[in-house]
Amino acid sequence: MSAALKRGWCPSLFRPMESGDGWLARIRPREGVVGEPVIAALAEAAARHGNGLIEVTSRANLQIRGLRPDSIAPFTEAMLAAGAADPDEAIEARANIIVSPLLGADPAIAAETAEIARAIRHGLADPKFAGLPAKFGFLLDGGGALTLGDLGLDIMLRASGAVRWELRCGGNTLTLDAADAASRALGLAAEFVGRARPGPARHAGPSRLGFVACVDGLAGAVLIMPPFGQMRVEQLAALGALAREYGDGGLRPTPWKSLAVGGVSVSDAAALLAAATALGFISAPGDSRLDIATCAGAGRCSRGEIDTHEAAAWLAARRPAGAALLHLSGCPKGCAHPGPAPLMLVGRAGRLDFLTDGRAADPPALRGLSLIETPAVLETAA
Ligand code: SF4
Predict the structure, then answer these.
(1) CATH architecture for residues 210-278
(2) Percentage of the chain with pLDDT > 70?
(3) Which of 188, 261, 289, 320 has the largest CB neighbor count within 10 A?
(4) Residue 63: CB within 6 Å of ligand 1?
C-alpha cells in the first residue's frame, strides 16, 4: 500500500487520506467521464471495502469514504483492474485536471480538448513535476453548452476560435495554437515546482440542473446532484443503470458537485430526471436542499458534533425554496463553506449554536439549541 496522507493534502487512489469515518480515496475520471465498467466496479468495491458513501468533489472527482486500513489495498486493486485509474502513481498524484464536463457528449466542444487533456496528464508523469505544490490544478474548457467559468485554477486553458486556445496563469493571458497548448501549459507548470501556487481556487457556484441541450437541440445532457454532496453506492449503481438506458452510459462529475449524463435525447430527458429524482437526487433548481451547505458531520468525521446530513434533511423539509443560504457545520472548522453565510448553525455536543452573517468559528448569538428549535430561529432571522 502506498503512503497515506496527512490532512490538508490532496488524496488520490494511491494515497488515501484519513478522515473521521476511515480513509478516503479519490477517483479522477480520465477526460472527465466515468465509464460503465468503472461505475459498476466502483459501486461494488466501495460497498465491500468502504462504508458505502461516495461524494462528488469540487475538483470533479469521486471520493470514496470509509475505507479501512486493511481494505485500502484490495480497493485500489479493484479500481486498477476496472481501469478506473492510471497504474502510474505519479500521474494519479499530479493529474488535477478539470475538463469540460460534457467532453465526448457535446459536439460543440473543441475537437482537440481530449488530446490536450491526455498530453497534460501524461506529461505530468515526468519526475521533474514531483515538487509541484499540493492541489496544483489545470482547467481545460473546450466550450460547448456547459462552459466551466473561472474556477481560479492555477493554469487555465480555454478554446478560443478555430484551433486557438487561450492560456491564463497568475493574471497573465496568451493565445496559442492548439498544437502548442499542452506543452506550453506544462512548461508553465514546471515554473511552479518547489514554489507556492499562484492563488486559491474559487468556489464553483451553483450547478445547472435538469436538461442542457447541445448544438442540434435534439440531444444533450441531464445534470443531477446528490443531496448535500453525498450518495450511497446503491444510488450510484442505479444512476449508472439509468445512464445506460437513457444516455451514453457514462457519468460525468462536475466541479459544481453534480453529475452529468450525456447523450440524452430531448424525448428521454423527462423520464431520466423523474427516475433520478425517485432515487433521491436533486434534479431541478428550487429544491430547498440546495439552500443548505453542510459537511460530513458526526458519524463521517471524527470532529463532527452533530449528524449534519440528518439535521440538514430535516431542516430542508421545513424551509421554503429560495431561502437564505444556511451553513450547517458539524463543528467550528466550517469545511463546507469557509466564507461567511447569512445563516449559520454549528454543532456543539449534539446541539446547535446559531449566528447570522458569519463564519462557523465566529461567536454565536444563541447557544445550545435543539434541532426542533431551529426552524423558528431561522425564520425570525431571515
Ligand atoms: S466542519 Fe468539522 S465536522 Fe464538518 S467536516 Fe469539517 S472538521 Fe468535520
Answers:
(1) 2-Layer Sandwich (3.30)
(2) 96
(3) 261
(4) no
